[in-house]
Write a structure and sequence with these properties.
329 residues, alpha/beta, Aspartate Aminotransferase, domain 2, Aspartate Aminotransferase, domain 1, 2 domains, 8-stranded mixed β-sheet, two-stranded antiparallel ribbon, 11 helices, 10 strands, globular
Length: 329
């Protein structure tokens, strides 16, 4: 029976989820485990360019996995045919590889898993297993979406998110990320080897509270601004992206070893994704260069054009162009 009265709960807008037709689970890696269990695959091909946590489901289930490489455009280098019990995982890295996803759908069909953890606003292809991680785009304690046509009969326990809220609340309370960075690291560690669970009530409510279209438009506008100003200096060659593509960040290729530090020193926090990949690949590989030199400049919906101008001004501080020219010689 519904309660009436009592103290007030946290007030949230009662809207809708962006991915209304998806299975709601606790983490993206557990969405992958769900697919592997439901489809009973014996082997999966995964990119070197990915987080170590993506291997958790394979290790847990005892499923064979094999790495494949990508080129500097982040397109897969893979010319083999799949056996009936094998599957190919491709990640739309930074949310800028939707064209490649479309080509792989035609090539592999239902033997493709699309990792859209960096491409929250990209819609899934009909019948293609697709994974989303909304916490890459919004402040959430956990939660993931899965589109699949094969459902498990398991009765999964519902997750509880309250212990994972500390870093989110502290960032609001103290007004900066540094105040809760230790909490954030503890939070990330706490997600390791979690069992498959249903999305928590708190995360469900938070995801129904977001003004998705407004935030999407702001993020796209920031991306376009950075590309309009930095595009001619950017050595990463973008695909011809659809107008509604909403990337995770603006990828700026620079072999200036001091640029990342300069940005961070100016309180522009540029993440280094997939450090573990460096232990698996050679120094002349595309993956090595992508991890070290393809900088994900923040352009998400929290910021406006003035913030983007500050990023550009920091990158163009005297000395950058000269250093890059010397490194190319």
């Amino acid at each position: 029976m519904k309660e009436i009265g009592g103290y007030f709960e946290l007030q949230l807008r009662k809207g809708e989820h962006y991915h209304k037709g998806a299975v709601r689970l606790n983490t993206a890696r557990n969405c992958l485990e769900y697919i592997l269990r439901a489809k009973k695959y014996k082997k999966i091909y995964i990119p070197y360019l990915n987080s170590e946590v993506i291997r958790e489901p394979m290790k847990k289930l005892g499923i064979e996995y094999e790495f494949y490489s990508v080129d500097l455009k982040i397109d897969p280098l893979f010319d083999r045919e799949l056996a009936p019990d094998e599957v190919f995982l491709y990640s739309d890295i930074y949310g800028i590889k939707c064209n490649t996803v479309g080509k792989l759908v035609k090539r592999f069909g239902k033997q493709l898993i699309v990792d859209n953890t960096h491409a929250f606003f990209s819609r899934p292809y009909e019948g293609i297993d697709t994974i989303y991680s909304p916490r890459k785009f919004f402040g959430l304690p956990d939660g993931a979406y899965l589109y699949t046509d094969t459902l498990l009969n398991d009765e999964f326990e519902q997750d509880m998110s309250i212990p994972r809220m500390t870093h989110l609340m502290k960032r609001i309370e103290y007004g900066n990320a540094g105040a809760a960075y230790r909490d954030y690291l503890d939070y990330c560690a706490g997600l390791v080897n979690q069992p498959v669970k249903r999305m928590s009530n708190l995360t469900n409510a938070l995801l129904a509270n977001i003004d998705y279209e407004n935030l999407k438009e702001r993020q796209i506008a920031n991306f376009r601004y950075l590309h309009s100003v930095l595009g001619k200096d950017n050595r990463y060659e973008y695909d011809d992206l659809p107008a509604d593509t909403c990337p995770l960040g603006y990828m700026f290729y620079s072999e200036d070893s001091g640029l990342r530090k300069k940005l961070i020193d100016n309180r522009i926090y540029v993440s280094t994704y997939w450090r573990e990949t460096l232990d698996l690949v050679k120094k002349d590989s595309a993956e090595y260069r992508i991890v070290n030199y393809l900088l994900p400049l923040p352009c998400d919906h929290r910021y406006d054009e003035e913030d983007m101008k500050r990023i550009v001004e920091t990158i163009r501080l005297p000395g950058l162009a000269k250093r890059e020219e010397m490194q190319r010689e």
